[in-house]
Amino acid sequence: MDAGTRDRTLVGTSGVDLEAVKRPTREEAMEAVRTLIAWAGDDPRREGVIDTPKRVVDAYGEWFEGYSLDPAKELSRTFEDVQGYDDIVMLREIEVESHCEHHMAPFLGKAYVAYMPTNRVVGISKLAKVVEIFARRLQTQETMTQQIADAITDSLRPAGVAVLIDAAHQCMTTRGVHHRHVTTITTQFTGVFKTDATLRQRFLDFVNR
């Protein structure tokens, strides 16, 4: 099981053979948006919202394109000529734009990703792309943090991986408790980042620079 599907079990699947969910057509998706507009109390035939279903479906195609992308493919091209480099490789402040799987509300923040290479490295833009792929799916921040670490571990086999995400969840800031200045921090440490407290602290110091 790869990093994209790990820990994504379906409710009620124990001993049950469920058919795969059929992806709706574009028109069916647009009709669902019209239904929501009507449910909210507006008229989907009104001039101001008549094209909203098309725009929403287009936006969903962009926001959730991560389902059609493969993080392992992004990490498949590696470089072994590292001239003896044996220290942290880290990207700071990668933009995170994702959607909470509980309310489909955005959560926005930054990701900090590091790994300790063994005999190969990957192009640094690919680390940012992995974050983007997992962010462009319905998510929990905790699961996404683990998925990013797992994908890097599975593909690069580094000595260790460190991931920290700091994000504000609009399901908390714009509804429910309405606490606007609260962010959520999640971390995942593997290998030497988990066993070596000094190395882990170096990562956290780089995060807080």
| Contiguous helical run count | 8
Strand order of the largest sheet: 5-2-3-6-7
| Low-pLDDT sequence parts | none
Which geometry do the CA atoms define? Answer: elongated
**Elements, N to C (H/E):** HHHEEEEHEHEHEHH
Structural class: alpha+beta
Into which percentage range does the β-strand content fall?
15-25%
Binned, the helix content reads 25-40%
Describe the largest sheet: 5 strands, mixed
N-end to C-end Cα span: 36 Å
Whole-number average pLDDT?
91
CA radius of gyration is 20 Å
Please report the total strand number as a whole number. Answer: 7
Structural overview:
With 209 residues, the chain is α+β, with helices and mostly antiparallel strands. The chain is built from eight helices and seven strands. It has helices at residues 26-40, 52-63, 71-74, 124-135, 141-156, 170-173, 192-195, 197-207; strands spanning 78-79, 89-100, 106-116, 121-122, 138-139, 160-169, 184-191. The strands form two sheets. It has a five-stranded mixed sheet, with helices on both faces. A two-stranded antiparallel sheet has the order 1-4. The longest helix has 16 residues, at 141-156. The radius of gyration is 20 Å and the shape is elongated. The mean pLDDT is 91.
